Automatic annotation (TrEMBL):
It comes from the Bacteria. Residues 5-173 form the DJ-1/PfpI domain. PANTHER family: ARAC-FAMILY TRANSCRIPTIONAL REGULATOR, DJ-1_PFPI DOMAIN-CONTAINING PROTEIN. One of its GO terms (biological process) is regulation of DNA-templated transcription. It comes from Marinomonas aquiplantarum. The lineage of its organism: Bacteria, Pseudomonadati, Pseudomonadota, Gammaproteobacteria, Oceanospirillales. This is DJ-1/PfpI family protein. InterPro entries: Class_I_gatase-like, DJ-1/PfpI, INH-QAR.
């Protein structure tokens, strides 16, 4: 089986656990599996070092112009106020959305998906602090409160920060098997919330 290629898009002032949590889930799943189910790529706008929250420096694997063909696109959150106003980034997200099998966001990453007009389902969630803003900006969305993650069709969105780990384990379950997701959670010593609420 060919590895599923997962692209995690991050940017300046991204929340550290929003990308490092899912990265840990998918790479741990690959490590504890007898096969190589996933390949994970950190992607930024230009491929240069990104300063995430609190000055956490990250060297992405590639840029939006030179990444491999993706099966999954996951957009992270953080201080997204500049990122949602970048036409080239929004255009790239819009171009990738119909190509990938699964679309996902952690925390406020859903704002980028909404602004790019690519949400496959109106049922979404985000960080509790941003629920009202998301609903006000995008009244057509069914913004769900008090859940760790939401899945509808081939789209997943998670609440804030650590909730992205629960959502990513759910993705491992969907993309490979529940047994691998459980094995990954155990390896990570993480108490996986299997149900969205």
């Amino acid at each position: 089986m060919k590895p599923i290629k997962i692209g995690i898009y991050l940017y300046e002032l991204a929340e550290v656990l929003d990308f490092s949590g899912p990265f840990e889930v998918f790479t741990t799943a690959a490590r504890v599996s007898e096969e190589t189910p996933f390949e994970v790529y950190l992607i930024s706008e230009d491929g240069q070092t990104v300063s995430a929250r609190a000055g956490y420096k990250v060297v992405p694997d590639c840029s939006i112009k030179d990444h491999p063909e993706l099966d999954v696109l996951l957009v992270v959150g953080g201080d997204h106020s500049q990122e949602v106003n970048k036409p080239n980034v929004l255009d790239w997200i819009a171009q990738q959305a119909p190509k990938v099998s699964w679309l996902a966001s952690v925390c406020t990453g859903v704002f980028l998906l909404a602004k790019a007009g690519v949400l496959r389902s109106n049922k979404v969630t985000t960080h509790w602090e941003d629920i009202a803003d998301l609903q006000q900006l995008y009244p057509q969305l069914d913004v769900v409160e008090g859940v760790r993650w939401v899945q509808q069709d081939q789209q997943l969105t998670s609440a804030g920060i650590s909730a992205g780990i629960d959502m990513s384990l759910q993705m491992v379950s969907l993309l490979h098997s529940e047994s691998l997701a459980e094995k990954t959670a155990r390896q990570m010593e993480f108490d996986w919330t299997k149900k969205p609420n």
